[in-house]
Amino acid sequence: MTGDRPQGGQTPGGDRPRVGSGVATEYARGKVNLRLLVGPVRADGYHPLRSLMVALDGPMDTVTVTCAGARSVTCDGIEGPANLAWMALDALEAEVGETLPPVAVHIDKVLPSRAGLGGGSSDAAATLRAVNHLLGLDLGADRLERAAAAVGSDVPFFIRGGAQWATGRGEILEPASAPAFECVIVAPGIGLSTAVVYRAFDTLPTPDPDPGDSLPGDATGLTEWCRNDLWPAALSLAPELGRVRSALEEAGAKPALLCGSGSAVCGITATATAADAIAEHMTVQTPGARVMRARFAGA
After folding, report:
1. Under CATH, what is the fold of the domain 181-296?
2. Phi, psi torsion values for 52, nearest 5 degrees
3. Which residue ranges does the chain devote to CATH 3.30.70.890?
4. What phi and psi, each to the nearest 5 degrees, are found at residue 223?
5. Among residues 147, 119, 130, 141, which one has the least CA distance to residue 30?
């Protein structure tokens, strides 16, 4: 079971970076979509979304940026130009309108990949924040968000953090309220490609319209309110996710829902005591899966 990371003061979307002589370190949080409503695919290939996303206190990646003779991005599994952190450096140069001094980015991965927790996007946002501090660019959150939007749909959210309603393809943000909750995230030993999940979504019946229910004021009200329109598609690709969700619900999680496009499943509860018990239960019930404790402090 993975525990929480220590945290410091806040910057937009993350923890205050440790800045030393030619080095800056940022933490990259995970997220969960408490409500994810998906519309039919548009002509541009994207699906219109309306989603309430919250940034979690819990396991985090560590992104360390140092001044270097040449640009590099090292990360277990995805290195170099294929990593979103590399794309973030390109976007930052486009935003400031000049070539920046080269940096080396190292990502210590804790968040599982292809789990719907936004780890890659969060790493990119952490890279933007760290380089902004390291090189003294003094860019405000609005310019960092603009650079982030050029990298990917979820990246601007991780500049802001907190709770945000996301619309468009996910890049249009509006600050939101959301109740505090504790949660257990179970990431099975499989990963799901976002593109593949959306293709499966397109083959299934159209989800019911948004009922427009008001956001509840506490965690117990989330049981009926939370919704993820991608769940049937993810389940069709990975039927074992049904067993994970059922085990979370049997252990007392209310609700248990898919994280983003999967493959992680998040079980929500109101108290730390209940969440700790659920985590212990899931560690036994889902051998081989990553079981992680996290929380949202409310916004």
Report:
1. Alpha-Beta Plaits (3.30.70)
2. -100, 110
3. 181-296
4. -55, -45
5. 119
Structure tokens at 181: 């909750």
Q: What is the pLDDT of residues 130-172, one digit of tens each?
A: 999 999 999 999 999 999 999 999 999 999 999 999 999 888 9
Q: How many CB atoms lie within 10 A of CB 215?
A: 16
Looking at the chain, which residues constitute the CATH 3.30.230.10 domain(s)? 10-175
Sign of CA dihedral 227, 229, 234, 240: positive
- What is the rounded CA–CA span in Å between residue 127 and residue 108? 12
CATH topology of domain 10-175: Ribosomal Protein S5; domain 2 (3.30.230)
54 Cβ contact list (under 8 Å, min separation 6): 31, 32, 34, 162, 163, 164, 178, 296, 299
Phi-psi region of 212 (alpha: psi -120 to 50; beta: other; left: phi over 0): left
Residue 72 to residue 102: CA distance in whole angstroms: 8
Tens of pLDDT along 7-40? 333 344 445 455 556 899 999 999 999 999 999 9
> Which amino acid is residue 216, in one-letter code?
P
Task: Report the C-alpha gap between 290 and 185 in whole angstroms.
Answer: 8
Q: How far apart are CA 186 and CA 268, in angstroms?
A: 11
Residue pair 7/27 in contact (Cβ under 8 Å)? The answer is yes
> What is the amino acid identity at position 210?
D
Instruction: Catalogue the active-site residues.
Output: 31, 154
Given phi > 0 = left and psi -120 to 50 = alpha, else beta, which region is 102?
A: beta
